[in-house]
Amino acid sequence: MATGRLGVADLTGDVLATLYTCPDDTFAVTSVSFCNRGNSAVSVRLAVADLDAPVNAEYLEYDVELLAKGVLERTGIVLSSGQKLVVRSSGSNISAVAFGIETPTA
């Protein structure tokens, strides 16, 4: 079981990235931070999904504006076995980091 940083991604424009997948027989409590290292505003998305390509109902954040040099954090996200944190940005120079705690289900 892991504690601390669970996943990182350096996002490029309009590409979905799986930031973290909850291991089998585990649940996780996570927080996700986006950091815009660029000089222009972008939009970001975050989903808790069953697959690498989320459906509309799985999004927690959808095209939220992230200003230049800005940050966005979403906390208290609970994932069950096999679920994925999937992120996307409309531009480059965006960091996404998942922090959390994994716990066995049994």
Q: What would your notes on this structure say?
A:
This protein is mostly beta strands and 106 residues long. 0% of the residues lie in helices and 63% in strands. The chain has strands at residues 3-11, 17-21, 26-36, 42-49, 59-66, 71-79, 84-89, 94-104. The strands form two sheets. Strands 1-8-3-6 form a four-stranded antiparallel sheet, with no helix packed on it. The protein has a four-stranded antiparallel sheet with strand order 2-7-4-5, with no helix packed on it. It is globular.
List the SSEs and their pairings.
Elements: E1 3-11, E2 17-21, E3 26-36, E4 42-49, E5 59-66, E6 71-79, E7 84-89, E8 94-104
Antiparallel strand pairs: 1-8, 2-7, 3-6, 3-8, 4-5, 4-7
Secondary structure category: mainly beta
* Percentage of residues in helical conformation: under 10%
β-strand percent reads over 45%
- What would you call the shape? globular
Main sheet: strands, sense, barrel: 4 strands, antiparallel
| Sequence of strands across the biggest β-sheet | 1-8-3-6
| Rounded radius of gyration (Å) | 13 Å
| Poorly predicted regions | none
Succession of helices and strands: EEEEEEEE
Put simply, the count of helices is: 0
Number of E strands: 8
Average predicted confidence as pLDDT: 96
Distance between the termini: 13 Å
Task: List the main descriptive attributes of the protein structure presented here.
106 residues, mainly beta, four-stranded antiparallel β-sheet
In short:
With 106 residues, the chain is mainly beta.
